[in-house]
What does this fold into?
Amino acid sequence: MAERERLDSLMIFVQAAKHRSFSAAARQLGMSPSAVSRAVQRLEDRLGSRLLNRTTRSLSLTDDGARFYESGRQILSDLEEAELSLRRSQSTPSGVFRINLIPSMARLHIMPALPKFVEQYPELKLEISLSDRRVDLIEDGIDAVVRVGSSPDSNLIMHILGTAKEVVCASPAYVAKYGKPQTPEALQQHQCINHVIPQTGRVRDWRFQQDGQVTTVDVAGPLTIDHAETATAAAIAGAGIIQLYNFVVGDAIAAGQLVPLLEKYALPGVPIAVIYAQKRYLSAKVRVFVEFIQALMTELKHTHMID
It folds into this structure.
């Protein structure tokens, strides 16, 4: 007997036993009394035991029927509770939610906004990890990631939040002392601060757009740093020129601590996205996080931290 038919026959029997009547059970289930009677008969045949005593006026439970009724009623009650719990979880975010974030974006922008999100969804328990590397959402047990310039697998959803641009900048003191480079190649005569990608150990390329082509310029300088905010602090102190994403250096530029350089050579922006597994039904946890991060990115656009 198919699983669905077994569940249906159990539900029909429980209703018949509860009401002590095929007719009452039929009204409750939207069936005919004869269909209810046949379903109970098939159940008894399968179990090899009489569950109901039948008379022309009423039904009564046999000893086996009474035991089976209590077990069946509990099974249906547990099933109903499981369905209610699932529906609640789909509408009310709860449980553990694991997210992986870009370190600089997390420290500078997401963490300051997170307390309101936590307060709004008190039943949600966040587990946050920071990295720039590609993660396997399924294998690593991650619910969502925020990335810059990622191209996810086809079985993942990539929700674009905005774009990030690489900005070349230096402190006003540095510019006053050494002048502004007028072309990307002129950077080779300047003190430049290289930024190392921590996860790979690779120095980030200095890339530009010239005459419709992407070019890379080799630069030199006394500092190589694997932490974006520390590199920014060094540039603010006058140690040299940096090239970092606008969401990293935007505050310092707005405050006049850094001056943008070579703007007409800047590459087009790359996408900032929240990425999550493709599922038929989007969980409430993912839904509210996407809404939160989308609203945050909208605020950053207004302050020109991203495009």
In short: Residues 3-88 form a domain with the Arc Repressor Mutant, subunit A fold (CATH 1.10.10.10).
